[in-house]
Each structure stands twice: as C-alpha cells, then as structure tokens.
C-alpha cells in the first residue's frame, strides 16, 4: 500500500475515532435518554484526569484508563441520582442544570487540582510508511472506537437490559407499568453514558494537554454527530461519524483545519436540511 | 389594541400587575437623578442584552423554536453597525446605521429561517443548525485579521475585533450616560409592550398553537411556516438590536461575542427566568445579568462555582423558571387559586411523571 | 356533484401498500362512512385527502379542482377540516384557547364570543374551559377535537373514529349532531368501527380492505355481504 | 495619604486561568514588596483585581467599573490581544494610564497604553535568523488562527524573505482544535528544516504530544513556548525536545538578581508550577509604575508621559535594566535565546543583550508628537502624511 | 355489593380510594372488590374518572387516601413496577406502545420483565393476533390504531399477569377483532386463570363477557350489577340516571 493511500485511511480513521469516542456517551445520554447534557465534556475531563492521576501513581496506562472510565461511570450514577433524574420530563431544563453543573465542576477542578496537570506521554511509539511516520497509539484509538460501537449495539439491541432500557426511554411510565425498574435503568444508562465519556477522556488523555476546560473541545463535535445520526442513535451515530469524518478529513487535507472546521459545520446544516430527521430516519425506512 | 396587552399568553394581569409595572417604570425613570453615573451606565448596559432575551423568549417559549443563533444575529447586526457607522461617518447617521443593521439581521434571519423552516427542520435539529451557522460566522470572522478583510474603511480585524465606530449620536452629541439610559428604557418598554400585544393577538394564538402541535395548527388552515418564519425573524431581529446597541455602547465587537460560550448565554437567561412568559424573561434576565456581574466582582475564583450553583438550584427548585416560579407563587396567593400552574404540570403527560 | 374525488390514489410505505388504486367520490351534501378492518388504510386515505402525506400516485380533486399538490393548510382553507384518529389538541393550552384558535380566522369580536360559548356548550366543556386540553379525559379530548373541526364550518368534514371512547349516549348525541350539520349542508366523511353509529348517520358506506375498495353501497347492503362479515364484522353482525 | 488604587484585570478562571494566575501573583508580590518598603511617594497601593473570566464583554464592563466607579489611578492587565483591544477604547477616553503586560504581536501605537512585554522585533528578529542559520532555510509555520498567530506569521514571512529563506507551509489552526494527525502529515509532506510553532491555548498545545508520538522530530522555534506556556514543564519529555525561543524572562535564568526574585516569589507562592514571563512582566510593571510616578511626582497620564519622553523611564529588573521607548511606549528587553533538551532541560544558546522595541518608531509612530490609537502590522503601516 | 367471603379468593380489594391531579380530587372514595378469575367491567360517562381509577390501581398515580390490596397484601405503598412484578398487567387507554421499537421488541419488553411464564405465551399472542406476527419487524409507532391496540394487549398478556387491567380495549378495533378479543379474554381466564378488569364504553363488549359490572359517576362507584343484572336495559337505565 502506498504511503499516500495509507495516510488517507489513517487520517480518516483518526477523525472517525475522535467523533465516535466523543459522541458515544452522548448518544446514550442525549440521543436515547433525551438529557441535553452540557456537562458531557466534564465527564470526559474527569476520565482524563483520573487516568493521569493513576498513571502518576504508577498504575499501568490501560488499567488506569479502564479505572477512569469506571470512575466516570460511577460519578455519572451519582449525578443521575442527585440531579438528572428530575429532568427526564423536562429536557430543556436539563440543559440549564447540566450547564450549571459543568460550571461548578470545571471551576472546582481549577481550584482543587490547579490550572494544569503534567502530561503522561503517548505510549506505543510510532511506525513509518514511506516518507511518513505515524503514531501507533492512534490505531489503538480507532480500534477502541470500533469496539465501543459494537459494544453499544450489542448491549442495547441484544441484551435484556438494552431492550428494557430503550422501552423505558421511549415511555417510562408505560415501562414501569410493565414492571421495569425504571429508576435503576435510568441510573445505569446514564452511568454507561458517563462512563463512555470518561473512556473518551481516558483514551485521549495521553495525547492532550489537560486543563479543566478540556472537555469543551469535544462537545460541539459530539452533539453534532449525535444529532446528525437522528432519533435512532444505535443506527445513526456510526454513519454520521463516517460521513462527517470523510468530509472533515478531505477538507482538512486539502484546505487546512479552518476550512475543515467551517466546512464540517456547513455540511451539518446541509445534511439536516436534506434529512430533517437525521440519518437514521433513512436507514430505518430502508431496514424494514 | 390595548386589550391585547393582556391575554392568555402573558402572565401578569389586572390592576395589581399594571400598578407594579408603572411603579417599576417610574422608579426606572427617576433612578438617574440619585444614582451614581457609573451605575446608570451599567444599567443601560444590562438593558442592551434584554432584547436578545426577549427575542429568544418569543421564539423558544412561545414559538417552540430553540434557536442557538441569537448571537449569530447579534453578531451580524453588531458588525453591520460597525461597518455602517464607520463608513457613513458618525453623527446622526449612526441612528440610521442602527436601524439598518437590525434590518440586515432580520434579512439574514429571513434567509436562514426560510431555508430551515421550509426544509421542515424542527426540534433539536433546529438548535443544531442555528448553532452550526453561529459557529461558522464566528470561525469565519476569527480569521479575518489581515488588512485584506475590510468593508470600505471598516477592518474586520479578526479575533481582535472591529473598532473605531462612533456610538449613537445626534449631530455631534453622543447619546451616552443618562441619555442612553433613557433611550434604552424607552426601547425596552416599547418592545415589551409590543411583544405582549403580538403574543396576545390572533397571530400569537397561532404561534403558540404551532409550538404545541404544528400539524394540528396546519389542519386549522394556518400556514404554520409563515408564522414560524415571522417568529424567527422578529426574535432574531431583537438579537440584532442587542448586537447593534452593544457595538455602539462599547465601540467594539469581536467574534467571541458570537461563538461559544456566548451563544449559550441567552438560553441560560431565558431558561432561568421562565421561557414561557415575556415578563418573566424581562425581569429574570435583568436579575441574572446583574447577579452574575455582582458575583463575578465580589467572589473572585468562586464566581463560576456560585453561578453554576445558582442555576442548578433554580432549576431544581423552580422548574418553570425562577421568576415564573416566584410570580406564580405570588399570583396564587393574591388570587387564591393556581389554575394555570397546576394544569401545566398535569398536562405534561397523561401518565404519572416517572421520578421516584 | 361530487365534492371530493379520489382518483386512482395509492400510498406506499416502504414495501407496504397502505392505499392502493383507490377511487372514491363523496357527493356534496352526503354523510359517507368509510369502514374496514384495522390497518385497511382508512386513516391513511384521510391523511391523503387533507394532504398530510403526498400520494405515491393518483390525484385528488376537491370541488373539481385538483389539489393533489396543495399543502394541507391550503386545502383546509378551501373548506375541509379533519378530526384525526389520535386526539391532537393543543395540550398545553386551555380548552377555550383551543377553540379560539380554530374560530379566529372565521369570526371576530362579539360573534366569536357567541360562537365560542355555543361550541363549549355543545361539547359539554363549558366548565372545563380554563383546563389545559391535555388534562381532559380521553373522551373529552375527542370532543374538543371534533369541536375544533366544526368551528371552521367546513364544506367537508372528515371524522376519523369520532366516537372512539365515547359512551353510548354520547355516541348517539354525536350522531345527531352530525346529522344536524349535514342538514345544514355540510358534507361528512366518517371512519367508524361502531356499526350502530354508522347505521344512525350513514347515507352511503364504502368498505376498504388491504388498501383497496372492497365494497360500497348502503349499510344494509354492506351488512348483507358475507365477505364483509368475514373480513370485518365477525359473526354477531352477520345475518 | 489615601492609597493609590491599582486596577488589575486578569483571568483567573476560564480557559486562560493558567496564564492569568501567575500574572495575578506577580502583581500581588510587587504590591506587597512596594507597600512594605513605604509605598509610592509614601502612599500605599490598593490592588483592586477583577476576574473577567476570559470574556471580552466582561473586560469592557470591568474596565469601566474600575475607571468610572473605583476611579483607579492606573489600569493594568489583559491576556489576549482581543482583551487588550476591548479595554483600549475605554481607556482612551479617560486620562488614566493603561499597562499591558504581555508579550504580543506588537504594533499598538496608543498614548494611553504602555506595553511591558516583548514584541516581534525583540523576539523574531533574533530567533528566526538563528534558526535559519542553524537548521536551514525551509520553515513550516503552524499558527493559531487569530490576530496574534496571523501577525506573527506575517513577521516570519517578512524576515524569511530578507534572509532568503522559504516558507514551505503555513497552517492556521482555529482556537480549540486539539487534533493534529493531519497537520503532522502535512508537515512531513512539506519537508521543512524546522517548524515555527505559534499555536496558542491548551487545546492547540496538544500538537507537541501528538507530534512526538508520531516521531516528527523536527527542530522548533517559537515566540511563546517555554517561557510563557511552560510546555516543557507540562508535557512529559521529550515532547518539547529541540524547541527554541527568545525570551526576556524564563524561570531558568540564573543571574543573582533573578535568583533572588525567584526566591521571593516561591516564598510567597510555593505552589507556582512555573514563573512565566507574563507573571514576571506583571511584577515589573508595578515597579515601572512606581518609578514613573515618583519621577513625575504625579499619577496623571500626562505627567507620566513627560517622564517617558525624556527616555529615562528605566528600572533595574531581574533580567537587567529595562526602559520605556518614548516613541512607542514599549519596553526594551534583555533577550536570550534558549533551547530545550531531550529531558526538557533549558539552556541559553545566545545572549543578545538589550534590544529596543524599534519597529514602531521606524515606521512612523511617535507618541511624543501624535497619538495614533491604532495597531500596525507589516502589512498595515501608518498612512504617510 | 358482592358479599362472597373467603379471603383467598379476593384478588383485588380497593377501599375508600381518593386520588386526583394537582389539588383537584377526581376519585372520591372508591370501593371495589375483585375475585380471582372474574371478568369485571367498569362503565361510565366520559370524564368521570375511570382511567384515573385504573392508573391508581396500577400505581401510576399516587392515591391520596384509601388502600389497595392485591391477593391480601397491601400494595398501596408499592410503585407501579413493583405492582407489575407482583402480577398486575395494564393496557392503557391510548395504547402507549413503544413507538420507536419494533412489534417484536415491544412484545419482548412485556416478556422480559414479567414473572415466570409458560414458553408458549409468545406463540399464543401471535396466534390470537396474527397481524402482529405479519408485522413483527414494523416500527410500532407506524402501525394503525387498531394494530397498536392489539399490540398493547399482546404486550401485557405475554407477561402472564394474574390481574389484567384494560382501559377501553375495544376502542378503535374492528368489530370482528373486538369479538376476537372478547374470546381471547375469556380464554385467558379459562386457560391461564387471569382475572380481568376492564373499562368499556362499548355495551356489546360488556354484555358479552362481563360477569359483573361497576358503574361509575363523578369519581364514585354508584352501582354494581351482578350476573343477570348485566343486561342492556339495566346498564342503560343506570347510565342514564
Ligand atoms: N408511516 C407509516 N409507515 C409505515 N406503515 C404505515 C405508516 N402509516 C400507516 N402504516 C401502515 O399502513 C396500514 C394502514 O394504516 P391506517 O392507519 O390507514 O389504517 P386504518 O385503516 O386507519 O386502521 P385502524 O382502523 O386500525 O385505524 C397499516 O398497516 C399501517 O401499519
Ligand atoms: N393529567 C390530568 N391532569 C388533570 N386532570 C386530569 C388529568 N387526566 C384527567 N383529568 C381529569 O380527571 C377527570 C377524569 O378523567 P379520566 O381520564 O379518569 O376520565 P374517564 O372516565 O377515563 O373518561 P373517558 O371515558 O373520556 O376516558 C376528568 O375531568 C379529567 O379532566
Ligand atoms: Mg385509523
Ligand atoms: Mg378514560
């Protein structure tokens, strides 16, 4: 394979992984549960900080990353219990509540941990193809993104929990009337969403500068990806990420990052205009 | 006409309410006589933002369109004012610049609105499209630092912002200090009363009907798209008014007034205040602007934590918004009944809310 | 003279033909009932007539004008109105305002006030006028929706299962109401599963099955039809 | 005597808090020292600090508040160029002096403003020739997509042209972008001899880690890395290996004056991760203000500017003697070129001695004669009159 | 009132039930007793509180006062989900299918949560409602009104509840299927021992299957008809009072 061709694939996989990993948690929390979670970035930040903290304590990176995702998930469960569960019927208020939460968390982190944390360095080294050198860790990110997608699909489409969870999110009262422990299901689902956000932070922690507001870099992309995906996030998120990654990657490569960024947003506007219900509406219609 | 000042769409009715309204207005009018000139100026500054909040309240609370684009039109009008004021050369022409820039924002809103509404975009998709458009403008303006980016004599000047425009003026007299304050109060009163009349009119009826169930509204013979477009253009135009006034006030505007997190602020004000009522939005936004500034001045690094806690506590304790919550509480006490609030709660679903 | 003419209309959803090559004409001034099994395509046909879906093929005429390409509101302005199957009132607006929204284009001032009282009385919702529409019981919401459709004083009234969830007397009352409006010249097209009600009001009946016209005629003719009994009515109605 | 009021606008929350914090600390340290040694002309300093949270609108609000309500004698602060530009029109309408304490893209010719940081002629005209000489004529630029980045890139272009070098690529990065795989590839494709990195903000700083992970391995030069963002402390080695910068201050300076200064700072703020040049400049600013006021025996801008016009507005700073240039009201600095090694150790490669902020004067800004209130760049020069 | 004693036969016992929305009371002291294996109809005009009563029994609406006992166990304090797991099945008015899920998944939800059940249940549901089998992969929200009603019944049935509560099951259903549902309800009782309480407006349905019949007016049970009394004239007479 020529270096150029590989490079295109590599870049594409890189953007795709970024979109999927940042959007996966939100796909559940926002796409399925309907909570406009403005604190999504803070769960990502949490995952990153815990990872770095553990690595600095001498924990091996992969274990630290898993532990960080779990920590974020547990925090998610607590947040769900204390705050979010009041807002399932009022998604627009959830925006305000989680925004408030996000302010509190970022600023508290600044006060407690300080404005910046020392990085831990990227593992896995690099490899060369032709004139180009690539970071191997980026392939790990891509693999993780694919794993997350597959995992989500299996959990929510194939397991007992998944079927009941989806039912709960579509009509909680009815699901209760059929015997679902909706409170618990909500808490677990939110926890999974927060955990995936934490995982995103954990995976990107070695490659990024850690500051309390770091979550912000993920938020626009993740919301856009989930929304473009449409109502059925399990079907829509992956194609949405594929599409956006292709657009972004092409524009980045040929016109630079500014056009890449502006172009992606313009594409978002156009895609929604053509498919006002998002990508999954087409897929659902096809699928039947 | 006058009858339209009251109606089902606006909270705050009857002699008690209007007496309060007049009392507050009178208070506002005599305020500059005994207040520090800085505080008068600061108050006018808060009022600048209220138009944007009222516009969002109209679109979101009444029309059901959650627009993340208030700062887009704020920015368009803000920059337009700058370009026009610089090129037309100050003095009384700044008034024309103000009006024209609002018109430009409305035209832009008309184009974007037509594109979205005729394309059948609604709900959260509406929010994401407006957000994307907003960010596109912010990114675009951010990279216009070079001298090649200019319109006439006005340099866009990238992230550092456009400056050098005159503030509002009549002849060679700048409208500043108390004069600006009175202009702002007058504008607010006019806009507020006009919006009340609008939402209580037949048009307002259709706007709320469209929010509730656009399909049903269409089945009653209304071209809902036109009403949505009207709502969007008016609401965005008000954001434009804020933008033009802001530029004129500070003689400066930058792309960061447009992009995140500025774009989220109007939503926060309106949600905090209670989006379903104009009066609540007016009062609440003012209080919040004032509160946030005060918190920021006095609490140093804890400011953001306190602001966050304030918002969180509000939504948890007063689900319909802070001002609306208090307003209803008072109204219930006064009238001895709480029809509206109660029904609001129960109407949310035929089945019991799932919380416990 | 037929007020509505549906000509060779089909509607597909993916692989499913919900309505297939239907020809139907509703004469001005008649009460026409559309019956048929669940999923036969009755509601879909209604939605095609008011324009909520574009047909896959075929054309629809109203008052001899081809309205196939018109938007729903334009059709309504021509003089039709509909009560949908699932109640679709403005749930978070008071009952009174629901009525006003329906009335305001046609009437104003004192006349509107009079009309609105008359309607509230007629619907039995006078006491509930300040209630949010969403807080009404299921049956009351049906009433409200019928009231909103009536408020437009349409030439053609489309009612999709108007009596679902109504008690027997109320069903009867609704029937009388429809007849009285019909007597004033309103054309009515009704989808129903309640045969007693159909008997009360219908001048002509069309049976839809699997998206196609299956039978048409007077109710008695239809009730005699054994195939109709088999696909739709079941044994008690079969004579 | 009533205290002298010093208004300070520094972000200590929001995205830029990690830069604003040392600035606040520097000011606080200087105020404490000055007050202990008897204040300015016997008057104690009252420091009024407000936190604009990185929001330009807040900068304007608070500038007005400090000037009109608190009636401060001097206004200091601002991090981004945008925040400075937000404050300037407001200060311009008063008679209060304003000190901008950051290094920046240069070019502001405004009588109300005194700039205490280094500017491109002090940083780029030293760094770029050195890099060309040492590493080669081909440079690739990655710059933040806003005024600082664009104007700095313009400086680079101009200097490279004079040196006969070649800019083989320029990439502008929107603020907040944190992913650089594509950029890294673009760089490899362009095959430069070295990189000019003037990317800004925590997100964009991720470039270094990602470039190291991809084994990009090119020499780098910058006007803001190391001494300002202390990236060599924040990233794990060797991400910043082979970085070069010219600075008037960096924590590793080991002159006795610098050592003493660092000791005082660490005593007051033991948790400071790094004393960066912004914090250092903020510290100097108060001493400079003290000198000006004492020489002028007045706090009025007019009188302070008379002192500046004499060309004798100087202090003995930890870096050495620095003076304000009368024409541009910018500050001369002792510049040193530093490099970062594989273990992130910092080494002084070259000491340039004192460099004047000459460019504005050369192109025709002369504040002793007229007040332009404008910002110039190589492509936006004053109109010849 | 029915006086047959022997507590083990009593599956549902509602005493002095008050409930409402906001501050408005709707149910004002409802008493009702259902025996194991009975089919009981509830009838009344629009808006008298029939659906409110059903929501209260299933636990979707909190009661203000009064008790609800299920198989001699006080369930007043239990949440809806706990009651469902204890053996309540509910078909709400307006169906409330899960609109974005397929027919099959809707049924799975009912199947996955309920108590222990026979293997043949899903098969049985498909047999009663062949349309559901045909449309297994259809998104439930796009089904016709009557089809959704069938799905809602199937979904409750598949959990094999001891007590099924149906709110106007015949609404919007074609006559032959109404008969079919009546048959089905009767055979659930005979085959699975299911007890059935249903709200109905359709007299034919009530007459066809109800052994007893409660008549509701303005938040109270005003009459109770048993056995032969459940005939058209009696019911009409009571309703028109
Ligand atoms: N949006 C849609 N997508 C897919 N299938 C649909 C859609 N709408 C309706 N259908 C299918 O088309 C068929 C006709 O539906 P329709 O609602 O017209 O039936 P109906 O005759 O009104 O039945 P009912 O008496 O039960 O109300 C049904 O099988 C239904 O499942
Ligand atoms: N969510 C609600 N909020 C407030 N009031 C309600 C709500 N739901 C019902 N009501 C009121 O409670 C009363 C009883 O309603 P319910 O739905 O129980 O009636 P119903 O007997 O089932 O009528 P129908 O035969 O029309 O279904 C009605 O007056 C209705 O207006
Ligand atoms: Mg139907
Ligand atoms: Mg009911």
From TrEMBL, chain A:
<feature type="transmembrane region" description="Helical">
    <location>
        <begin position="224"/>
        <end position="246"/>
    </location>
</feature>
<dbReference type="GO" id="GO:0022857">
    <property type="term" value="F:transmembrane transporter activity"/>
</dbReference>
<feature type="transmembrane region" description="Helical">
    <location>
        <begin position="15"/>
        <end position="36"/>
    </location>
</feature>
<comment type="similarity">
    <text>Belongs to the binding-protein-dependent transport system permease family. LivHM subfamily.</text>
</comment>
<keyword id="KW-0029">Amino-acid transport</keyword>
<keyword id="KW-0813">Transport</keyword>
<protein>
    <submittedName>
        <fullName>Branched-chain amino acid ABC transporter permease</fullName>
    </submittedName>
</protein>
<keyword id="KW-0812">Transmembrane</keyword>
<keyword id="KW-1003">Cell membrane</keyword>
<feature type="transmembrane region" description="Helical">
    <location>
        <begin position="96"/>
        <end position="117"/>
    </location>
</feature>
<feature type="transmembrane region" description="Helical">
    <location>
        <begin position="185"/>
        <end position="204"/>
    </location>
</feature>
<feature type="transmembrane region" description="Helical">
    <location>
        <begin position="258"/>
        <end position="276"/>
    </location>
</feature>
UniProtKB/TrEMBL annotation, chain B:
<dbReference type="InterPro" id="IPR001851">
    <property type="entry name" value="ABC_transp_permease"/>
</dbReference>
<feature type="transmembrane region" description="Helical">
    <location>
        <begin position="95"/>
        <end position="117"/>
    </location>
</feature>
<feature type="transmembrane region" description="Helical">
    <location>
        <begin position="124"/>
        <end position="142"/>
    </location>
</feature>
<keyword id="KW-0812">Transmembrane</keyword>
<feature type="transmembrane region" description="Helical">
    <location>
        <begin position="72"/>
        <end position="89"/>
    </location>
</feature>
<dbReference type="GO" id="GO:0005886">
    <property type="term" value="C:plasma membrane"/>
</dbReference>
<keyword id="KW-1003">Cell membrane</keyword>
<dbReference type="GO" id="GO:0015658">
    <property type="term" value="F:branched-chain amino acid transmembrane transporter activity"/>
</dbReference>
<feature type="transmembrane region" description="Helical">
    <location>
        <begin position="46"/>
        <end position="65"/>
    </location>
</feature>
<protein>
    <submittedName>
        <fullName>ABC transporter permease</fullName>
    </submittedName>
</protein>
<dbReference type="InterPro" id="IPR043428">
    <property type="entry name" value="LivM-like"/>
</dbReference>
<feature type="transmembrane region" description="Helical">
    <location>
        <begin position="304"/>
        <end position="331"/>
    </location>
</feature>
From TrEMBL, chain C:
<keyword id="KW-0067">ATP-binding</keyword>
<feature type="domain" description="ABC transporter">
    <location>
        <begin position="4"/>
        <end position="235"/>
    </location>
</feature>
<dbReference type="InterPro" id="IPR051120">
    <property type="entry name" value="ABC_AA/LPS_Transport"/>
</dbReference>
<dbReference type="GO" id="GO:0005886">
    <property type="term" value="C:plasma membrane"/>
</dbReference>
<dbReference type="GO" id="GO:0016887">
    <property type="term" value="F:ATP hydrolysis activity"/>
</dbReference>
<dbReference type="Pfam" id="PF00005">
    <property type="entry name" value="ABC_tran"/>
</dbReference>
<dbReference type="InterPro" id="IPR003439">
    <property type="entry name" value="ABC_transporter-like_ATP-bd"/>
</dbReference>
<protein>
    <submittedName>
        <fullName>ABC transporter ATP-binding protein</fullName>
    </submittedName>
</protein>
<dbReference type="InterPro" id="IPR027417">
    <property type="entry name" value="P-loop_NTPase"/>
</dbReference>
<keyword id="KW-0813">Transport</keyword>
<dbReference type="GO" id="GO:0005524">
    <property type="term" value="F:ATP binding"/>
</dbReference>
<comment type="function">
    <text>Involved in beta-(1--&gt;2)glucan export. Transmembrane domains (TMD) form a pore in the inner membrane and the ATP-binding domain (NBD) is responsible for energy generation.</text>
</comment>
TrEMBL record, chain E:
<dbReference type="GO" id="GO:0005524">
    <property type="term" value="F:ATP binding"/>
</dbReference>
<comment type="function">
    <text>Involved in beta-(1--&gt;2)glucan export. Transmembrane domains (TMD) form a pore in the inner membrane and the ATP-binding domain (NBD) is responsible for energy generation.</text>
</comment>
<comment type="similarity">
    <text>Belongs to the ABC transporter superfamily.</text>
</comment>
<dbReference type="GO" id="GO:0015807">
    <property type="term" value="P:L-amino acid transport"/>
</dbReference>
<dbReference type="GO" id="GO:0016887">
    <property type="term" value="F:ATP hydrolysis activity"/>
</dbReference>
<feature type="domain" description="ABC transporter">
    <location>
        <begin position="12"/>
        <end position="241"/>
    </location>
</feature>
<dbReference type="InterPro" id="IPR003593">
    <property type="entry name" value="AAA+_ATPase"/>
</dbReference>
<keyword id="KW-0067">ATP-binding</keyword>
<dbReference type="InterPro" id="IPR027417">
    <property type="entry name" value="P-loop_NTPase"/>
</dbReference>
<dbReference type="Pfam" id="PF00005">
    <property type="entry name" value="ABC_tran"/>
</dbReference>
<keyword id="KW-0029">Amino-acid transport</keyword>
<keyword id="KW-0547">Nucleotide-binding</keyword>
